Amino acid sequence: MIDPSLKVSDDNNEEKFLNNPIVTVGPVTKQYLKAVKSYITDGNRFVFSDGASKVQVSVISDEIIRVRMAPQGTFLADFSYALQPYDHVITEVKFIENDLQYLISTPKVTCAITKADFLISFIDRDGFLMSSDAKPMHYEENVQFGGYYIYCSKTCQTTEDFYALGDKATEFNLRGKRMVLWNTDTYAFAKNQDPLYRSIPFYLSLNKGYCYGIFHDNTFKTHYDFAVESMDCTSFWSDGGELNYYYIHGPQMVDVVRRYSMLTGTHQMPPMWALGFHQCRWSYYPDKKVKQVANTFREKKIPCDAIYLDIDYMNGYRCFTWNERYFPDPKNLLSELNDIGFKTVVIIDPGIKVDENYWVFKEGKANNYFCRRCDDYFMEGNVWPGRCQFPDFTNPKVREWWGGLFQGLLDAGVDGVWNDMNEPAVFGSGSFPDDVRHNFDHHRGSHRKAHNVYGMQMVRATYEGLQKLQKNKRPFTITRAGYSGVQRYSSVWTGDNVATWEHLKLANVMCQRLSISGISFCGTDIGGFTGEPDGELFTRWIQLGVFTPLMRAHSAGDTREREPWSFGEPFESICRKFIELRYKLLPYLYSAFWQHYKYHLPVLRPVVMLEPNEHINHFREDEFSFGDSILVCPVLQPGVANRKVYLPKGTWYDYWTNHKYKGGKEFVISTPLDSMPIFVKGGASIPEYPVMQHVNEFELESVTLKTWFSEMEEKSIIYEDHGENFAYKLDIYLEKTITVRGTNGSFVMEQTMHGMYTPRYEKYEHIVYGLPFKVKKVIVDGKEIKKYSFDTTNVLSFTTTKQFKKIEILA
Ligand code: MIG
Questions:
Q1: What are the record keywords, sorted (predicted)?
Q2: 420 lines ligand 1 (CB under 6 A)
Q3: Tens of pLDDT along 69-110?
């Protein structure tokens, strides 16, 4: 039975072209794995064979098991753009063979392979069957391009539902849907239109409170069927490459997402200003117009940190140039903007104009950096500049060159880069033809293999270039296209949406979906890219935008002006109030980002993730938690005086009124236009900044620390650092934990800290809500303080130093 010839070599150099069927005559029609004939064990890797095909099962960590299939017995080169290096913990792996099965077990999960039919299943340590193959993995030869179409089908239970998969414009729960991953420029996309801009081959299954994920690390066009073709079967298949998936165990939903982030990485800490409000439009020009918009923000006292330059800032849409008529002195303009607290973000597209007098084209041509077709012609297509060629961002040399091209923009004072059209988009044909060749980091491939990673490698080149040029300053990038792992290099927006209420609802669902797909730093074009929102829709979108990690208003060039004041009163004042709320919450959002970066938690967490055991929550998609402690429910319909909001179990307080709720059911909450349902978890401590017109407008003297009473012990994490540099990677940061607990006569708050950063402010202004008793004494670090006050609703206020260790509030 043990067959040493099955050993998988790590040296894949000679084998990647051997995967074609050379032994059989005629194409291989659909083949299913047959009975397991032999196996070999090699540390934490196990290879099984049915005589022709091989399947490798490897234990990556206690909770992650990888499965690969080689149709003709030769595995493809083991290379991934998605994975990041990470030490995964493997405690102990047990291998057992019985009459029917092979069992590979970690302390958390068992992978079982049936001998008779090669079916693979995963079982929780308490015996719950998480997932099992509905049929053996199968494959079919692709005669035209070589390689195989590869297929995997898993049984689907009646109580099982599906989530994640990136940016799909459909219901949050994916059961009953068929989806395709193929990055596509989808101007004014419709609900249920598919595919869209990003390819994130990671889905979650949730059944009876047990959750697992499947990350299929395959860049070819990939298809999903969640119980459509057959109600009891979920399938995924790809048009090429290797069947190569990671089973990610939970059983908690949030842990599956965390483990996916360990595999594929998280966002870096964004510069603090990137969490402020961003104003974008296609396009602000000339320079006077840009200044006028920026000045209006300051005159009207509406906070804003970033303004964008869309394609018209360039000379004939040539990347890395300026239109000298509209922008005769970019350096001066950007420094004037900077003086009033604006960062400037500029767009850069992949298409490079074919123009022998244009240095970028000349350099790219001279160095052979542009993509070519199978017969060696250049890949040419029309985009904004006219006839263009396109850098092959899958070539490491090209990425390095590209990264260096940003020097000029940085010298002019540019603060961030927006990568658009990187699906890649080509006018007319949509994208590149399949036969375009790519370097694929020396693993070579056609566009079929590189298409879905092209945009990610472009923004990677951008990010890495900026990082190198800016030295110790955090880059800010935003991209439209992406593949799993793109979060390591960029934030994303959801592309060309429409100014309708339906799209506002989609915006909410898509950001939650991106967040649980590893892409927390996401946002939508507030107001809708194309079409005309009225004041009400725009205002409701701003409200949702406060709670999307990236808050950017954007609009197409053929729409009416679209700034927060464009709709007059009362909309302007309400927008101001909500943008101000965003700025108050900045230290809280920053702390949520830290928890994403450090502990791999998504910033937005849907209700089903908070309470996966309640089956009805499988279908909720309006409410979500923003970080640990704030639950919001955007208003998604016009003219409504109230709406239903589900609050998960536990104690919640209305952020506006401090009314206390016992969760676990739905409530009707009134929703006048100047409000939206926002709730804070009992026991939360939320840091707030004073309203600033932009980040670092003035030196802070104190931070407001709002704390809500709880009888249960609750912890909140507050994170602080320099805000713009990479010192946090050298542990120069401060992570504070506030722990609270209460009784009917006392409330105790304790603070612990670690890290090496010292914030410059000295004081906390405390506000404590929901105390169930009349306060008689406030003791800070053992000393009673006399200066405290409470209002008619028993909200307590007092001041302490930022270093307090223990506060006792007593009846
Ligand atoms: O073909 O740069 O999604 O945000 O304003 C359209 C112009 C190109 C598409 C982007 C949009 C941007 C627009 N771009």
A1: Glycosidase, Hydrolase
A2: yes
A3: 999 999 999 999 999 998 889 999 999 999 999 999 999 999
With CA atoms as reference, report the closest residue to 517 among 490, 485, 488. Answer: 485
Residue among 259, 137, 710, 777 nearest 518 (CA) = 259
Q: What is the DSSP letter of 730?
A: G
pLDDT tens, 261-279? 999 999 999 999 999 999 9
DSSP state of 26: S
186, 313, 318, 420, best to mutate for ligand 1 pocket (most atoms within 8 Å of CB): 420
Alpha-carbon distance 307 to 553, whole Å?
A: 10
Ordered alpha helix ranges (H), 121-180: none
Structure letter (DSSP) for residue 104: E
171: annotated active-site residue: no
Number of H helices, E strands in the chain: 12, 53
Q: Do 425 and 185 touch, CB atoms closer than 8 A? A: yes
CB atoms within 10 A of CB 96: 11
Tokens 């920026």, residue located: 294
Q: Is 622 a catalytic residue?
A: no
Helix (H, G, I), strand (E, B) or coil at 625: strand
- The predicted model scores a pTM of 0.96
Contact 518, 488 (CB under 8 A): no
Hey, what are 194's tokens? 């598919």
* Separation in Å, CA 497 to CA 472, 507, 525: 35, 8, 7
User: Token pair for residue 484?
Assistant: 């799993």
Give, using CA atoms, the residue closest to atom 12 of ligand 1.
282
Q: Beta-carbon neighbour count of residue 387 at 10 Å? A: 12
Answer yes or no: are the C-beta atoms of 155 and 44 closer than 8 Å: no
Question: Which residue in this structure is represented by tokens 């050298």?
Answer: 730
End-to-end CA distance of the chain: 75
What is the C-alpha separation between 573 and 576, in angstroms, rounded?
5
Across the range 532-558, mean pLDDT stands at 98
**Contact in structure between 689 and 584 (CB atoms under 8 Å):** yes
The closest alpha carbon to 259, from 68, 123, 63, 121, belongs to 63
